[in-house]
Amino acid sequence: MLIGRRIYSELHEMFRDTARRFLRQELETNIDSWEKEGVIPREFWRRGGEQGLLCPSVPEEYGGAGGDTLFDMVLSEELGYAIGGASVGFASHTDICSHYLLNYGTEEQKKNYLPKMVTGETIAAIGMTEPGAGSDLKAISTTAKKNGDTYIVNGQKTYITNGQNADLIILACTMNKSKGAKGISLLLVDADSPGFSRGRNLDKIGQKAADTSELFFDNVEVPVSNLLGEEGKGFAVMMEELPRERMSVAVRAVAASTRAYELTCEYVKDREIFGQKIWDFQNTKFKLVDVLMQLNVTWAYVDQCIERLNDGSLTVEEGAIAKVWASEVDSRVVDECLQLFGGYGYMSEYPIARFYTDSRVRRIFGGTSETLRSYISRSI
């Protein structure tokens, strides 16, 4: 059996029930058609907002429920657990973008953006990755040059979650390339700004309903008042917020592998081969026991990190370890589970196939496993 978890209160579990019910009814019944369209419709976002599922830790003064970080993590878990949940950009919007605004935004910026992010009227994205700058954020080349009371932005971003739907982009750009990391700043860019355009909705091997896009900035004028934090402090802000992003990836990973395990247990106890249930073979039992042990150990560490994230004590290294470990366990677990489905596991109509293709990118985004291992090694 899976480990009994103790970090969540009754209120958190009530929120989980709401999220799971919503995703079962609104997402899992529609994911096949949305994958063909390559995007999650905006109406789904608004319905999520009506259910209180967007940005639950935003304070009441900005339209949120005023919950703690554990509510955000519950939502991320349920997105990982849901069939097709990997395509839903709620986590980037909730776990990342809202906290950039909460932690570094001015009062005017918070009042302007957060209430509509809570309702789903405004969909947020974060623009970090570029064709020549992925895990190495210091290599960002999108520029912002000050011109009176505006910044003139030029450049390109790619692999941007919520790229087609986004109304607001938290944009990482350089204001002084010669200063490297100390030249990077963050700007709040409204998607209706002249000169901003969206490229193609990228064709991926998994997460096919996610609108992952290229974004282009051609002399986009951004008011100086839309600077997020201080000039030259953008890289430091991103480093501060990355542990939260990586924990979001970690909890989605272990929740997804947990759902894959549960689906597999159901399948092997029902499917017969050579006159007996697949479950009756010792190999099947041993494989699933190995999966169960990996899940229990991973949940134990991830829960410890969630608690530390909630009280503000989680270190960058701890968040990186959680992300690397959980994403790699996810890949191993889902691969083992698909194998037990045999040929059916390779068919797209089976949820296990979707979990398989959706899981692979978790070892890449939020910092590749190789980059994070290099970073973690500095603490040894």
Largest sheet: 4 strands, mixed
Q: Going across the biggest sheet, name each strand in turn.
A: 1-4-5-8
CATH class of the largest domain: Mainly Alpha
> How much helical structure, as a percent, in the residues?
40-55%
The beta-strand count equals 10
Fraction in beta strands: 15-25%
Distance between the termini: 35 Å
CATH architecture title of the largest domain: Up-down Bundle
User: Helix/strand/pairing class, anyone?
Assistant: alpha+beta
The helix tally amounts to 11
Q: What is the domain total for the residues?
A: 3
Molecular shape:
globular
Q: What would you report as the Rg, rounded to the nearest angstrom?
A: 21 Å
How are helices and strands ordered from N to C?
HHHHHHEEEEEEEEHEEHHHH
Assembly form of the protein: single chain
Can you walk through the features of this model?
This protein is 48% helix and 15% strand. The protein is of the alpha+beta class. It has three domains: 10-122, Butyryl-Coa Dehydrogenase, subunit A, domain 1, CATH 1.10.540; 126-230, Butyryl-CoA Dehydrogenase, subunit A, domain 2 (Beta Barrel); 235-377, Butyryl-CoA Dehydrogenase, subunit A, domain 3 (Up-down Bundle), CATH 1.20.140.10. The strands form three sheets. It has a four-stranded mixed β-sheet with strand order 1-4-5-8, covered by helices on one side. Strands 2-3-7-6 form a four-stranded antiparallel β-sheet, with no helix packed on it. A hairpin with a 2-residue loop joins β2 (143-147) and β3. The longest helix is centred in the middle third of the chain and has 35 residues, at 234-268. The model has no long low-confidence stretch (mean pLDDT 96).
